[in-house]
Amino acid sequence: MKKNLVLFLVFTFGLFFGQNKNHSEKFKTLEPDVWLNIWDKENSDKSIKIDTLFYDEIPKYLEFRGTVVEALRWNDALGENILIQTVTGHFNWKDYDENLTDFMLQDKSELFAYLFRKKRSENEFSRVWKLYDYNKCYGVDWFTGFIPKATTITDIDKDGISEITLPYVLICRGGMDPGEMKIIMYEDNVKYALRGTTMLMCKSKEHYGGEFEPSDNLKKESTLYDFLKKRWETHKCENDRFY
């Protein structure tokens, strides 16, 4: 009996200590920002002076969720702008039944983008818009995030108001299905979009996926539409980029 008790205590202590050590290591490596080279400097407007911000340079009163993967600052005709892009990584969420009694633990991940602006007559930044999307997945391969070297700041129509273009993907699969892809553009608080799928096997004659549908208001803006179609062609191929 004593032997069994000793073995139980040793096992319990080892399990507890191992978990705490694992959590301690994770705690030590926590970072508020993970710079993933999201900004596409080459295809952004060279006439706009765009600066990257360190995490500590972001005004403390700005409210946002997630881990920062890119933060940019620039000026246009509307004032001084700060763009913050974040992701949450994977976490558990409770998927309740219709009666809201029983639930299953499922996997979820989220991404956010925020535009804050300070007009010339103002002393502090205020939020102009928030982009939010998520991925609920119980699959083998999945990814939720902004496409590397894809976010652009431009002034395509030369009206002094910058356009912010945010390409990202939501992938969840256990087979060979294309992922979900979106390119969202904001000009001030007007939102345009291309929504479709990633392309797989791009270098093969059997490639598939890669189609998109534009938002209705984008169809009326030919200059912006042409720009976003080129961005889509540039980024639609997965090519093992996301995991």
TrEMBL record:
Protein name: GLPGLI family protein
Source species of the chain: Flavobacterium sediminilitoris
